[in-house]
Each structure stands twice: as C-alpha cells, then as structure tokens.
C-alpha cells in the first residue's frame, strides 16, 4: 500500500506529462481552428525537454525555437541543392548539429528536422508553419504552464 507521502511524489511525475499533453492539444486545436499547421513529430520530443527538463539549456526558447528554425532551414537548403540521397540526409543532420552548436541553439529534437523536411519533400512554407509558429506556441504554452505550476521557466530568453 502506498503511503500518503508517496502521493505528492507520484503527482509530481505527472506534471511534465500534463504539460506535454496540453501543449500538443493546444497546437492541434489552434491549428484546426486557424487551418495553419502547428504540429510536427519532433515537437513531441521538444515537449519532453520543455516540460520534464525546463531548467536545461536545451529547453530554453532560444534553443527550442532557434534549433528548429535553423535545422529546418538546413534541411530545406539541402533538399533544394542536392535532392534526397543517403549522403544528403546525413549532410543535413550533420550541418544542423554544427549550426546549432555555433549559434548556441542546440535542441536535440531539431536534429530530426532535416530528415523530416527531406523525406517528405517539404516546401519553404514549412519553415513558417509548422516550424516557427508551432515552436513559438510550444514556448508560450510552456511559459504559462510553468508559471501555473510555479516552476521557473525560462531561465533565459536569449
């Protein structure tokens, strides 16, 4: 039988999952309402970092938004310049990692963005929607959610 002291601990484990649930729900509903795509698969992994590790440098707005935007841009450039080949997929991911490190926007889920762009043949509009707009909504939801749960987020905006 669980002791009463274990209930607050168990509830604390639910907090990040509830945050991720709300972030994806809001992106999905807002996207449906506005008819603008605000979700892509790597955002699920971004929610893990933003809600379970909000103090991490990888969770900060600069990294979350900047990492996704830069990595998607790399994927779009690689797709336009080289097409889809094993080496261009690898080049896209490697270049995205390097650029994120150089710009201090490292966000691991964004490493998947060049692959997503290249394997789906995404167009340049993908950079705005879902990437930039969706990442901005994730940050805003994380900001409000962490304020409500009294967690300090972000630790730095830029």
Automatic annotation (TrEMBL):
Keyword Transmembrane belongs to the record: yes
Transmembrane regions listed in the UniProt entry: 12-31, 37-53, 73-102, 122-145
Pfam families: TM_HPP
Record's keyword annotation contains Hydrolase: no
Domain HPP transmembrane region: start-end pairs: 12-154
Keyword annotations of the record: Membrane, Transmembrane, Transmembrane helix
Superkingdom assignment: Bacteria
Signal peptide: none
Protein name per Swiss-Prot or TrEMBL: HPP family protein
UniProt organism field: Paenibacillus germinis
Lineage: Bacteria, Bacillati, Bacillota, Bacilli, Bacillales
């Amino acid at each position: 039988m669980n002791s009463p002291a274990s209930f607050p601990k168990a509830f604390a484990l639910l907090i990040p999952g509830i945050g991720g649930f709300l972030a994806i729900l809001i992106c999905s509903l807002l996207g449906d309402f506005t008819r603008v795509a605000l979700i892509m698969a790597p955002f699920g992994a971004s929610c893990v970092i933003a809600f379970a590790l909000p103090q991490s440098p990888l969770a900060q707005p600069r990294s979350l938004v900047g990492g996704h935007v830069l990595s998607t841009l790399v994927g779009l450039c690689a797709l336009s310049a080289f097409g889809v080949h094993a080496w261009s997929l690898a080049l896209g991911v490697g270049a995205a990692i390097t650029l994120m490190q150089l710009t201090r926007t490292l966000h691991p889920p964004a490493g998947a963005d060049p692959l997503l762009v290249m394997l789906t043949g995404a167009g340049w509009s993908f950079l705005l929607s879902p990437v930039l707009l969706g990442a901005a909504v994730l940050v805003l939801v994380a900001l409000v959610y962490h304020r409500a749960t009294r967690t300090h987020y972000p630790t730095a905006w830029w």
